[in-house]
Amino acid sequence: MFKLTINLAVHAVDVPEDMPLLWVLRDEIGLKGTKFGCGVAQCGACTVLMDGQPIRSCITPVSAVGAAKITTVEGLTASPAGRAVRAAWEQVDVAQCGYCQAGQMLAASALITATPHPTDADIDQAMDGNFCRCATYKRIRAAIKTAAGISPADHRGDVA
Amino acid sequence: MSLSRRDLILTLGATAAGGMVLGFGLAGTAGAAPSAVGDYVTVAPDGSVTILARNPDMGQGAKTLLPMLIAEELDVDWAQVTVAFAPADPKRFVSQYAGGSLSVPDNWEAMRQVGAVARAALVGAAAARWKVDPATLSTAHGRVRHAPSGRSLAYGELAAEAAGRPLPDARAVKLKDPKDYAILGRPHPGVDTPAILAGQPIFGIDMVLPGMKYAVYVKSPVYGAKLKSADLVAARAQPGVEQVFVVDGIAPPAGEQIGLAPGIAPGIAIVGRNWWQVNAARQALNPVWDDAFGAEHDSDDYDRRAADLLKGPGETQKTKGDVDAALASAHRRVEAVYEAPFLAHLTLEPQNCTASPTATGVEIWAPTQFPNDGRETVAKTLGLPLDAITVHMRRCGGGFGRRIMNDFMVEAAVIAHRAKVPVKLLWTRTDDIGHDYYRPGTYHRLTAGLDSAGRVTAYDVHAVTFSRDGKVIDGGGVGLDAAPGHLAETSRLRRSLIPAIASTGWLRAPESNALSFIHEGFWDELAVAAGQDPIAFRLAHLRARMATPVAPSTEEGEPPFDIRRMIPVLELVRDRSGWGTRKLPPGVGLGVGIYFSHRGYFAEVAQVRVAPSGDWKVEKVWVVGDVGSIILNPTTAHAQVEGAVTDGIGQMMTAIRFEKGRAAQANLNELKLMRMSAAPEVDVHFHITDNTPTGLGEPALPPVIPAVANAVFAACGARIRTLPMTAEAITAARTDRVKTA
Question: What is the reported pLDDT for B32?
Answer without folding.
Answer: 39
